[in-house]
Amino acid sequence: MTTIANNLQQVQGRIAQACAAAGREAGNVLLLAVSKTFGPDAVAEAALAGQRAFGENYIQEGVEKILVLRDMPALPGSALQWHCIGPIQSNKTRLVAGHFDWVHTVDRLKIAERLSDQRPEGLPPLQVCIQVNMDGGATKSGVPPAEALALVQAVARLPRLKVRGLMSIPDVAPEYAAQLAVHEATRQLFDRIAASGVDGLEAFDTLSMGMTADLEAAIQAGSTMVRVGTGIFGVRPRPAA
Ligand SMILES: *Cc1c(COP(=O)(O)O)cnc(C)c1O
């Protein structure tokens, strides 16, 4: 077994254990493999080991990988699912709308409107999570929690987007209790929005939270999608933005 295949198995093991500890079914937490800074060969290796969903932070780099992987023989090409999990500038929305299946980092209506306008006719609606800045931490991206419902409501009206849930990237605290507290706060916000009665939320089912260092706490708090990079591909060759 390759290192990546072996790492995938270990991470799936962590997810299964965390689900068991939380009394949740393991099938309810999707593993997103964060392949930023790693080349197409690493993605191909993970795909051959059965991984299907991949997350990319840098738009240009991600699109290049998507195109290479699509043309790789022996791979389930179009079976791969691509998630944009990095910040999106206005001049990159067309690339995102044209190539990705999911976007986790919508935190402004203007970006959402551009993504909806630019989503090609032949593709299904872009699946969108609203990024929330739960801890006001060093990662300043994300809508403040108090403004999340209004943004969800506005984005839910856009024709070529489907609002799927919330995403957060809290600074990882060293202690489990602190990790759990911030993820719980995100889950409670998610529950409030899901129960708000806003139109267009029939598929509001996704809580994208938890990374290599804090996926156990995220799963205990209710995460449905953990985004794991280092735990699968190893330490990144260059620092993350
Ligand atoms: C890089 C990144 C991850 C993965 O982080 P690891 O600590 O390597 O697991 C997850 N989410 C986002 C938004 C990222 O930028």
Describe this entry's structure for a reader.
The structure is a single chain. By secondary structure, this protein is of the alpha/beta class. Helix content is 41%, strand content 16%. The chain has nine helices and eight strands. The protein has helices spanning 3-22, 40-48, 59-70, 93-99, 109-118, 145-156, 176-194, 215-221, 230-233; strands at 30-34, 53-56, 81-84, 102-106, 126-131, 161-167, 206-208, 225-228. An eight-stranded parallel beta sheet has the order 7-6-5-4-3-2-1-8. Helix 1 (3-22) packs parallel to helix 8, helix 4 (93-99) crosses helix 5 and helix 7 runs parallel beside helix 8 (215-221). The longest helix is centred in the N-terminal third of the chain and has 20 residues, at 3-22. The chain is globular, with a radius of gyration of 17 Å. The chain starts with a helix and ends in an 8-residue tail after the last helix. Pyridoxal-5'-phosphate binds next to strand 8 and helix 9.
